[in-house]
Amino acid sequence: MKIKDVRVTPIAIPDVPLVNLKGVHQTVFLRAIIEVETDSGLIGLGETYGAKRTLTGLERVAPTLIGLDPYNLHDLRARIESALPEGGGINAPTALADHKVVDVVYSAFEIAMLDLRGKEVSRPLYDILGGAVRKSIPFGGYLFFKFAKQDFTFGPDILGEVMTPDALVEEARGFIEEYGFKSLKVKGGVLEPDLEIETMRKLREAFPDHALRIDPMGAWTVPTAKQVVDALDGVLEYLEDPVKGMDAMAELSALIDVPLATNLVVVEFEHAIEAIRKDAVQIILSDHHYWRGATGAIHLGQLCRAADLGVGMHSNSHLGISLAAMCHVAAATPNLTFDCDTHYPWYDKEIIKGGRLTFKDGALRVPEGPGLGVELDYDALAEQHDLYKRAMVRDRDDTDEMLKYRPDFVRKVPRW
């Protein structure tokens, strides 16, 4: 089995104005859909970021993969490194963490290679990764403060304005009723710390049995974070990236008992070693989109088990191919200790046959077909590619988008 063709299709999906420390989501988010076709007629699928740096990397690598054996992942990595010798960061200008372009591009194509291997032997991808220790994957409700949508050109709003503690509690109530989530995560760093403390307390009062987390994205200084933790004693399951940088996380870690999680300060294996040495975090959030694919994410889980660290799973704005890959990786990670994150409920579009994946009691069943267990809906793919061309958004810039809602906004990290 050899690769004979590689196709990369950029698409856009209508988004809503979800607020974070650095700004607000744009009218669409971008994804890249990958098809890798072999001389035997099989097609492997992948899905990753669609912003210009990633897209450029994918398009530069694609023709170099012709003739590759999908079982030879070392050759895949070598070809990518040769095609992208600079190997630099790929994230948009307003991102808070930067990932190596070679890692992101490798991760995207590795999923497609593993999908091919599963399809060739008619086994699900989790078997290619070592076997499933679970086939129902628990997810948490990802709660955002948000503005009421201003621009309806590409799609409707969801929930209207949610900019108070009480409004966020109602948002959570709707998510729990519709999806059955057993845990809740708040994207913090948006309101003043006292209001976010109030939000978490009200969530605890409304949902006494749910695990609660907050992710301020480095919005707080160490003293502010310490005050928040003290005020939320007994409320938090864990606190994600409250302060900016490895040293600040280590300083805070020494002052508190609440576990610290991260997807910002630990994004490569070298970072993990430093974090372990400094006791900067107790939980690492995996993500196959930049942790060197599914195999890298599995290796990260093994490292965390050896270091007695917890493992969760970070989310991004994703569709069904990505979500299926998340489920397979989660299924094959024995020490997955926390419910996974997902943005999926915030969108209503899909590009896989059969439509959107369905949550039951806050969990997803791992797709059971060969490979990823999902197939492309080419009509839906064409529709979202057309939106990509019409929307004319080529990169993510939450800060610039924020100026449409708050013209006096100035990005500042940390903010409080």
Describe it:
Strand 2 (19-20) and strand 3 (23-24) form a beta hairpin. The chain has helices at 52-61, 73-83, 101-121, 125-128, 165-179, 193-206, 222-231, 246-253, 269-278, 293-306, 320-331, 378-391, 398-402; strands at residues 3-14, 19-20, 23-24, 28-38, 43-49, 136-138, 141-144, 183-187, 211-215, 238-240, 260-262, 283-286, 310-313, 363-365. It is globular, with a radius of gyration of 20 Å. It contains 13 helices and 14 strands. Helix 2 packs antiparallel against helix 3. The chain starts with a strand and ends in a 14-residue tail after the last helix. The model has no long low-confidence stretch (mean pLDDT 96). Strands 7-8-9-10-11-12-13 form a 7-stranded parallel sheet, with helices on one face. Strands 1-4-5 form a 3-stranded antiparallel sheet. Helix content is 36%, strand content 16%. The longest helix has 21 residues, at 101-121. The protein has 416 residues and is α/β, with parallel strands linked by helices.
Provide the helix percentage.
25-40%
For the record, give the distance between the C-alpha atoms at the N and C termini, rounded to a whole number.
55 Å
Q: What is the percentage of strand-forming residues?
A: 15-25%
User: What is the arithmetic mean of pLDDT?
Assistant: 96
Number of helices: 13
The run of helices and strands is EEEEEHHHHEEHEHEHEHEHEHEHEHH
Main β-sheet: number of strands, strand sense, barrel status?
Answer: 7 strands, parallel
What is the CA-atom radius of gyration, in angstroms?
A: 20 Å
How many strands in all? Answer: 14
